[in-house]
């Protein structure tokens, strides 16, 4: 496995070693010891989630507020997504900055999204099955999110406006400038 830094502090891409032959392929999707050795992060993932979405779906931008903040390890099992992270840690040198990467069933890359980040993705293929590990359990009372089309963050989701599928909850989300003060 290889780690590639992103422009955002503490956010990185994991690129697994894939073995292909005439039977198919094999790769190690997650190994706690390798993850900790390569990343220097001690993360205890406690929950795995899967989401199936159709082309044009934009999910996010979401996070959990402290004390239930979550780090996530996101990957695309089937299809192709544009995965996005936004640093909202007030004391971070990359505060307010975003990063996007295509995660696909072919590249098998994973994006590590630390605590204190908003996260979201758009579906670029007909369908996509997205998995992500979380290091804390979901807590409805601590969920937070901003409108995915917020002009301050200005994410290019690579989906034409007339084909965007956004939940009512996300359409009614607050703006980036309304985020509560978050210091982790």
TrEMBL record:
Keyword vocabulary terms for this entry: Isomerase
EC nos: 5.1.3.13
Pfam families assigned: dTDP_sugar_isom
GO MF, any single term: dTDP-4-dehydrorhamnose 3,5-epimerase activity
GO process terms (BP): dTDP-rhamnose biosynthetic process; polysaccharide biosynthetic process
Record carries keyword Isomerase: yes
GO cellular component: cytosol
Catalytic residues identified in the record: 62, 132
Record site feature (Participates in a stacking interaction with the thymidine ring of dTDP-4-oxo-6-deoxyglucose), residues: 138
CDD domains: cupin_RmlC (cd00438)
Catalytic activity: dTDP-4-dehydro-6-deoxy-alpha-D-glucose = dTDP-4-dehydro-beta-L-rhamnose
Pathway the protein takes part in: Carbohydrate biosynthesis; dTDP-L-rhamnose biosynthesis
Function comment: Catalyzes the epimerization of the C3' and C5'positions of dTDP-6-deoxy-D-xylo-4-hexulose, forming dTDP-6-deoxy-L-lyxo-4-hexulose.
PANTHER family linked to this entry: DTDP-6-DEOXY-D-GLUCOSE-3,5 EPIMERASE, THYMIDINE DIPHOSPHO-4-KETO-RHAMNOSE 3,5-EPIMERASE
Family of this protein: Belongs to the dTDP-4-dehydrorhamnose 3,5-epimerase family.
Subunit architecture: Homodimer.
Protein name, entry field: dTDP-4-dehydrorhamnose 3,5-epimerase
Name of the gene this protein is made from: rfbC
């Amino acid at each position: 496995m290889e780690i590639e830094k992103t422009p955002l502090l503490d956010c990185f891409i994991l690129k697994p070693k894939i073995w292909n032959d005439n039977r198919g392929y094999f790769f190690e999707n997650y190994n706690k010891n390798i993850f900790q050795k390569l990343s220097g992060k001690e993360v205890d993932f406690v929950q795995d989630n899967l989401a199936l979405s159709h082309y044009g779906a934009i999910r996010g931008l979401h996070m959990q507020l402290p004390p239930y903040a979550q780090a996530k390890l996101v990957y695309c099992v089937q299809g192709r997504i544009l995965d996005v992270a936004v640093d909202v840690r007030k004391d971070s040198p990359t505060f307010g900055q975003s990063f996007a990467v295509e995660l696909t069933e072919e590249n098998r890359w994973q994006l590590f999204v630390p605590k204190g980040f908003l996260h979201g993705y758009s579906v670029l293929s007909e369908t996509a099955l997205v998995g992500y590990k979380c290091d804390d359990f979901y807590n409805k009372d601590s969920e937070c999110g901003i409108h995915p089309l917020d002009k301050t963050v200005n994410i290019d989701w690579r989906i034409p406006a007339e084909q965007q599928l956004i939940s009512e909850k996300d359409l009614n989300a607050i703006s980036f400038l309304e985020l509560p003060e978050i210091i982790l």
